[in-house]
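Feature request disguised as a bug report, sorry. It would help if multi-protein outputs had a clear separator. Right now it looks like this:
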Amino acid sequence: MWIDTVSDILHEAAATAILPRYRSLADGEVMEKTSGEVVTVADREAEELITRRLRSVLDAPVVGEETTAADPGLITALRDAPAAWLVDPLDGTANFIAGRPEYAVMAALIRNGQAVASWIVQPAEGRTYVAEKGSGAWRDGIRIHRPPAPADPADMRGAALTRFLDPAAKARVQAATSRFAALGPGAKCAGVDYPRLADGVQDFLLYQRTLPWDHAPGALLLTEAGGVAHRPDETAYRPTDAERGLLAAADAHSWRTVHAILMQR
């Protein structure tokens, strides 16, 4: 499994296309992709570089966030192809544009609809997270083991991205805020929030929209570190799922506790 090779590719993309523009984007280098969604030249150039390099490692379809925005049919490769690459060239684009360090470069290898390896590079922080299904998760070469979350919700810290929640779900989150030690929007970057959960900085994450390039890398990192990433019906997350909604937590007990507070009607 080409762990170091792919890590090097993501670092090359960051060094070539992303870091030179960090806090120095020029006029015209930020465009609207869809209503409320922006993209930068850095996103597109990084994805082009990563796509070329990954195909030289394993000649399989590359499902990149920006390419798929132009050709939505590409996403079917995650389900139909024996193997496919999944790429988010710049997760946390809004943070990057604002000059905040909470952004990441991510990739995953999908086989038969499941993530079998994943990579998360945080260029501004100089950290690299990798995971391989059945083998474990690492931060900068150090094995990660997620400790259990506190048993009492009043001691738990979490994040809920409420932007895509329906009004009833958003109201439940707002009403439950005082029941936790902390509950906010998180970094608004899955490539930062999943590693924080795996590292023990946070105890749970709640999402409604679960685009595969946002969640496949972090979900594998978390589960290989000992955490849980399940749909609201308690089935394990898969990148090919059509379902919406995802609760990720430090362990099964904390998942059930948070699920009862935030997701049960």
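(second protein starts here, but nothing in the output says so)
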Amino acid sequence: MAYFETDTGGRVYFEHHRAPGLPVVLIHGWGMSGDYWASAVEGLLAAGHGAIVIDHRGCGRSDRDFTDMSIAAIAGDVAAIIDRCDVPRVALNGWSLGAAVAVAAAALLGNRVAGLILTCGASPRYVQGDGFPHGGMPEDVLAIAGAITADRPGFFRALAEGASGEGASEAMIGWVERGFLATAPRASETLAGLATLDQRELLASF
């Protein structure tokens, strides 16, 4: 495990699990941390693949007081950490909001990306827009910050129950809930980026 220090002095936590095969960069969903990829890391290592796990700004063990919490900034961290790990090629796996980060990071890394995996991905768009009738509405995403401020524990409890799936154990729900509760006060700014995100042209260019 290590920390990458950004240009602004903030630290981003990452782990580089080395193995002979192509490393997979695991980019978690909003409000979570790299801890939730533990089983995936075990599976990758068993199959001979390396893994790089990153905690987004404001999440997990990364610093909580970044002023720039944007998807673009997190993608820049991902690309810089891959440089730091000195690996020639990687596959990127982004989960939920992490998929939008993965797409943005892929644009920065170019032909160093051997594959792009979008796991329940919030890409190319998360909300409805011109020519895209899928997803929710931008105003609903923007309203989440107010809902968190009004009842942080209640909001995250309900979110953890939904994210864990029907029939999930209390242990699972509690684990997910603790991840959400540990996020930085400004983490909702990252989520707000999904209200305007449009990666259709970017994805089509790969």
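Even a blank line would do. Unrelated, but nice: The chain has one domain: 2-205.
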